[in-house]
Amino acid sequence: MYLPSATESAAEKENTTNKEVHRKNKEKQKQDNCMATVDQKVTIDCPWSIYSTIIALTFCIPFNAKHSLLSAGKRKYVQVCVQNLSELCFHLSDNSLKNSADCRDLQLVPLNPESEQVIYSKQSIFFVWELKWTKELPLSLQCLFSVSFCPATSEEQSLILKPFTYEFQVENFFTLYRVKTEIFPPLGAEYCKTGSLCSLEVSITRLVDLSEVDRDEALTESD
Can you quote a single GO CC term (predicted)? Predict the structure, then answer.
């Protein structure tokens, strides 16, 4: 996505010092926005001139995505977080998550609203899919996330933009631990009440043996 910078005045074009100041201010503004950028140059040739005009363009990547694997009992979920890095607001629609390996024994059931969502500047939106399988989970899962977007401003909604895509791989589906918590009321009381001291019981059960890699990274007893 190309975000045009402010137009330089005639005095700035004639003064080299002002150009350098403008360039530094532009670089500082780019760092403050914390946006990933891609710089490109376009050369324009005129048939009635022997000189070529070089125009520098800076394309900003509007989104950043990351994924995580969630587990609740025997149910597993894939979560994708989309963060808006730009100063603009966007409409998000038609989100999807596909398995590149085309495994028929595995289904990705979306748990997201089908309606259009608005993502504001510096905001993050989460998308979740539940994994459902008939036989056994594959050793790895190749995923391709896609979501369509357009600027939320009315004058820029006519822009035709390609969907934002994010490709990732999920491995190690095994659930190593099960965590169960329960809060008990004080002795002699039937319910937990505000202001009363209650006890919290946490139970951690190891479901499968740790592999050699996990055993090396596991916490020691002193930790």
Answer: TRAPPII protein complex
